[in-house]
Specification:
alpha+beta, Rossmann fold, OB fold (Dihydrolipoamide Acetyltransferase, E2P), 2 domains, 6-stranded mixed β-sheet, 5-stranded antiparallel β-sheet, disordered N terminus, cell inner membrane, membrane
Length: 395
């Protein structure tokens, strides 16, 4: 587990923080940032605007550059070139002690020899505030993070989740303009992680503090962020809301990294794309006829219709759904709220289609391994990407 130096977050208190102009001025502006380690470029021409009060997640695989970018913003590892502005002030070359932020690390980085109240008061004491004011602020923060009775304990006497709450209280003690979270939940078990992320989001909304969180956990990013910055190989692949990132991925990497995705090598034919033994209608695209592409669809977008659904059926059915194919149900994996199913045969040819069906749909249709099924691949959810795009992160 990493142990990071604790930044002095008290140097620029909130009351003297430079204010941004109302409207479209970004609170944090990153311009053409590069970071090189010898011949290796960890960051490549990164530009990003973050608005005041936003909760932003830097998301990507190990080695994609997300932590390097956070450390550049914090001044813990200065960029090779480029500019960072916070509240209109150029902080590009300032040391951490001269920047206006609080930071929480994965390893908590609490002082083991100090009580919980002294840990929280650490940054406040450096501001030379009156003792009574510091004590009142510490009590307020302990109430805020739900640990009012833990003041006299030491970090080793608290659980991991409690220690992370104390680290968060210490980071926001001086009301910094920016809160930086470096994978703060990754050392916790699954249930505590889910509970604490809801608390972090609620606290961030209450305080209105601009927040950047680094994570490799896509579910964490989707549940917490106002906007997600997806990174890969030192560049930004896409910036958007969780819904935009998930439903309208800009690249194959984003589609593949966020959630599960079926991928098929395919060929474009006008408004259709061919793979397996069939041409399928697909989402609008700008590729030329005959161009080799990758067709992608998420497992939950596959719609089950039951065997024999390829005819219009009842008289009141106006239109037969497009992209219907008959398949055979292969292996079925129970994942609690849904069944993950491998579909084979028919017009899929040698391809395998992964589909996620709800427990109710599985029961209603009587799905079982080896059974027949008709499924629909909705045209607007069948996305097309260039072949040869990056599929993974660096190291």
């Amino acid at each position: 587990m990493r142990h990071e130096p604790v930044a002095d977050i008290s140097a620029t208190p909130a009351e003297v923080r430079p204010m941004t102009a109302a409207g479209n001025t970004a609170y944090l502006r990153i311009e053409h940032l590069w970071k090189a380690f010898g011949e290796f470029h960890a960051l490549k021409d990164i530009s990003l605007d973050i608005n005041e009060g936003e909760f932003i997640c830097f998301l990507g695989p190990s080695g994609c550059g997300k932590t390097t970018l956070l450390r550049a913003v914090a001044g813990l590892d200065l960029q090779t070139s480029g500019v960072v502005r916070q509240g209109g002030r150029d902080i590009s070359t300032l040391p951490p002690s001269k920047r206006d932020y609080g930071i929480v690390f994965q390893s908590y980085a609490l002082f083991p020899n100090l009580t919980i109240e002294r840990n929280i008061a650490f940054g406040l004491e450096n501001t030379k505030r009156p003792r009574a004011e510091i004590d009142a602020r510490v009590k307020e923060l302990l109430m805020l993070v739900g640990l009012p009775d833990q003041a006299k304990k030491y970090p080793a006497q608290l659980s991991g989740g409690q220690q992370q709450r104390i680290a968060l209280a210490r980071a926001i003690a001086t009301s910094p303009g920016l809160l930086l979270l470096d994978e703060p939940l990754s050392a916790l078990d699954a249930k505590v992680r889910v509970h604490l992320r809801h608390e972090i989001k609620g606290l961030q909304r209450k305080l209105g503090v601009t927040t950047i969180m680094v994570t490799h956990d896509q579910e964490e990013a989707l549940s917490l962020a106002d906007r997600i910055v997806v990174m890969n190989h030192g560049v930004i692949e896409q910036v958007g809301s969780p819904t935009e990132i998930y439903r309208h991925p800009a690249t194959l990497f984003v589609a593949d990294f966020i959630g599960e995705t079926n991928k098929f090598e395919a060929t474009v034919a006008a408004a259709s794309v061919s793979f397996g033994a069939k041409a399928f209608r697909c989402a609008p695209h700008s590729f030329a006829n005959g161009e080799a592409v990758v067709a992608a669809i998420r497992p939950e977008e596959v719609i089950p219709h039951g065997p024999g659904s390829r005819s219009p059926g009842a008289p009141d059915v106006v239109k037969t759904p497009e992209n219907l194919i008959d398949v055979t149900v292969g292996e079925m994996e129970f994942l609690g709220s849904f069944w993950r199913t491998r579909l084979r045969g028919g017009e899929l040819g040698d391809e395998i289609l992964i589909a996620d069906f709800s427990v109710n749909a599985t029961r209603r249709l009587g799905l079982a391994e080896g059974g027949a099924l008709t499924v629909e691949l909705p045209a607007d959810r069948l996305l097309i990407f260039p072949q040869g795009e990056r599929h993974g992160g660096g190291n």
